[in-house]
Amino acid sequence: MNNDSQKITNLSQTIYQSIAKKFKKSVSYVGKIARKERTPTRGVGLDILKEIESYRNKD
């Protein structure tokens, strides 16, 4: 893959996809945390929740 197509692929990711990739977790896991179907209390789950909240606070 050339560099331009990699840039386009990276731009087309959703927020959930980019967070999942950053923390090496599945997109569905990130989505469950975002929808409050899972309530993380420690570890990576809590870090994901903080990342999601930082995106929410940008608006």
Structure description:
The chain has four helices and no strands. It is mainly α and 59 residues long. The chain has one domain. Helix 2 packs across helix 3 (27-34). The longest helix is centred in the last third of the chain and has 16 residues, at 43-58. The chain is elongated, with a radius of gyration of 13 Å.
Nearest-integer average pLDDT: 87
Q: Structural class from helices and strands?
A: mainly alpha
End-to-end distance:
34 Å
What are the secondary-structure elements, in order, as H or E? HHHH
Characterize the largest beta sheet: strand count, sense, and whether it forms a barrel. Answer: none
Compute the CA-based radius of gyration.
13 Å
Amount of helix? over 70%
In short:
The chain is an all-alpha fold and 59 residues long.
Secondary-structure blueprint of this entry?
Layout: H1 3-11, H2 15-23, H3 27-34, H4 43-58
Features:
4 helices; mainly alpha; 59 residues
